[in-house]
Write a structure and sequence with these properties.
The structure is a single chain. This protein is mainly alpha-helical and 116 residues long. The chain has one domain: 50s Ribosomal Protein L5, Chain: A (2-Layer Sandwich). Helix content is 34%, strand content 8%. The longest helix is centred in the middle third of the chain and has 17 residues. The mean pLDDT is 83.
């Protein structure tokens, strides 16, 4: 989810390019299902991007994540054991500063800092 996408969909485009360069897979846009008043979120608004990884791409992403990115994060506490489901899916997040630790993003001109 990209918090800045609530005000400007340009943030979503930057997030999509970043996820696409990290994973090597085309991203899809996710839309909100319900309106949530405290978060100023309306139904059917684009708020996130996702990438579906299979096969070698998923192994390459996991190896890159575990061997390169996570050791660079000083105070990363890891992903909770309850953040997955029975199908093998797991969800965890990074701050914009932590996303810049991926080697595919380091030399890039993407403006990751503007996600917030």
């Amino acid at each position: 989810m990209v918090k800045g996408a609530l005000q400007d969909t340009g943030y979503l485009a930057v997030a999509g390019m970043a996820v696409q360069s990290i994973t090597g897979v085309r991203t899809t846009v996710c839309y909100s299902k319900k309106s949530v008043a405290p978060f100023d979120l309306r139904a059917k608004r684009a708020i996130a991007v996702k990438a579906h990884l299979k096969g070698q791409l998923s192994y390459r992403f996991l190896a890159n994540l575990i061997d390169v990115v996570m050791p660079r994060i000083k105070e990363y506490r890891g992903a909770k054991g309850t953040s997955g489901d029975s199908s093998g899916n797991i969800a965890f997040g990074f701050t914009p500063e932590q996303v810049t630790l991926f080697p595919e993003i380091e030399g890039s001109e993407l403006n990751i800092k503007s996600w917030q």
